[in-house]
Amino acid sequence: MKSYKVGYVVGSLSSTSINRLLARALVRLAPPELVMNEIEIKHLPLYSQDFDADYPPVARAFKQAIADVDALLFVTPEYNRSIPGALKNAIDWGTRPWGQNAFTHKPTGVIGASPGAIGTAVAQQHLRGVLSFCNAPLMNAVEAYVQFKPGLITAEGDVTDEGTSKFLQNYLSQLHAFIAQQTQ
Length: 184
Ligand code: FNR
Known about the structure:
Elements: E1 4-10, H1 18-29, E2 34-38, H2 57-67, E3 71-75, H3 85-95, E4 108-114, H4 121-133, E5 145-147, H5 162-182
The chain binds ligand FNR.
Residues 12, 14, 17-19, 77-81, 114-116 line the site of ligand FNR.
């Protein structure tokens, strides 16, 4: 069995994040070939080009964590019909200094949860645009827009609805196939 390291990034800094619950569920539901570990963004300062000459250790570690994985998975909320500033900030760190873009050719998936009916669809479209510019090959299908209802995912990451659980399992199996195909 060939396994793949997948770094997942949670786009929310909230201590009660539903997207963190979703990430926990995805870790539990992932096929054994996908070894999932979080790449944290919460300690990154706000990016400025002033840092390019001497990247701080936290940003070096962030870029190294991206370099160390075979693929990335973004699990993000939608903020004002786009992605949270913290996530955009992290992506900006990952792309600089110029010529040292950590996302180049890194297979990537996007997914997100919201209490709203369209389940982060607009944020994911924005994120796809950003990641496309960053030259990260994106899994186009399947898409996953999760409408979060209280109790859908327990604090431990158990999905309480069988249909949602199957849907997420299929998403992860498609992600596995995409990563395998991209890294041949
Ligand atoms: C939101 N929320 C939200 N939801 C949505 O579906 N579309 C949106 O555009 C927004 N906009 C938005 C802006 C800001 C600043 C906040 C704080 C929230 C609601 C959002 O989906 C909800 O708070 C989720 O719980 C956020 O995800 P996490 O942080 O719990 O993972």
